[in-house]
Amino acid sequence: MELIRKYILRDWKLKALSLVLAVTLWFAISHVGESKMSVSVRVLPQNLGKEFMITSMDTDDVLVMINGPVSILKNLRPRDVRVSVDLAGAKGGRYTIAIRKTDIVVPKGVRVEAVKPENLVVNVERAIEKHLKVIVKLDPKWMHAYRVKSWYPRYVVAEGSRESLEKRDTVDTIPVDGSFGAEEEEQDVTLDTKDMLVRKLRPETVRVIVKKN
């Protein structure tokens, strides 16, 4: 025991200095080369029942502040950071959901410092399916020269919010237009859903044939 005590006390100032230098070096290696950055990330809602749909969110993206080694951050891309919110159990209504650090997935070695905004407001409605009659609209500039001869299909299936669809029986096409000149012209035309909350339309286009007057 005496031998150990003498060894410890011998040149104790030099040993203490060595310890301080070792701790300082470890701290420098651990922290030098670290940086901070902010990444705009798309929010990914998860686990919402199929019979429901999101009709609005107050923001689609959040700003995530992260900290980590420069060697990692310099190659980091927005898709390397994922922000998910759990909507399991959400029915119809308005929800304010806290975005927690644990909801954010980042590469190994990177730390999440903060996220803005910290809350997300989501509106959820029950979804329904409905058969809608197609109404073909011809661009006014062609009405003097052409008329709608036929279109197919006559009905489409819309899947969307109940509030948006339950009182609706028809859906218009966008105005049929083109470089017309032949006796008959055939065109695939998309449907106008800008005033509807629809997540799926089957089919998405209608085959329209117009004929010269």
Explained architecture:
InterPro entries: c-di-AMP_regulator, YbbR. This is YbbR-like domain-containing protein. Pfam families: YbbR (PF07949). It comes from Syntrophorhabdus aromaticivorans. It is elongated and about 75 Å long. With 213 residues, it is α+β, with helices and mostly antiparallel strands. Helix content is 17%, strand content 47%. It has two domains: 93 residues, RNA Polymerase Alpha Subunit, Chain A, domain 2 (Beta Complex); 77 residues, RNA Polymerase Alpha Subunit, Chain A, domain 2 (Beta Complex), CATH 2.170.120. The strands form three sheets. Strands 2, 5, 8, 10, 11 and 13 form a six-stranded mixed sheet that branches. A five-stranded mixed sheet has the order 6-4-1-3-7. Strands 9-14-12 form a three-stranded antiparallel sheet, with no helix packed on it. It is built from four helices and 14 strands. The mean pLDDT is 86.
CATH class of the largest domain: Mainly Beta
Q: Give the strand tally.
A: 14
Number of distinct helices: 4
The CATH topology of the largest domain comes to RNA Polymerase Alpha Subunit, Chain A, domain 2
Which secondary-structure class do the elements indicate?
A: alpha+beta
Q: Nearest-angstrom radius of gyration?
A: 32 Å
- Low-confidence runs: none
Residue-averaged pLDDT, rounded?
A: 86
Distance between the termini: 115 Å
Question: Strand share of the residues?
Answer: over 45%
Question: What is the helix/strand order?
Answer: HHEEEHEEEEEEEHEEEE
CATH architecture descriptor name of the largest domain: Beta Complex
Binned, the helix content reads: 10-25%
Shape: elongated
How many structural domains in the coordinates?
2
**Largest sheet entry:** 6 strands, mixed
Pfam families: YbbR (PF07949)
InterPro entries: c-di-AMP_regulator (IPR053154), YbbR (IPR012505)
Organism: Syntrophorhabdus aromaticivorans
Protein name: YbbR-like domain-containing protein
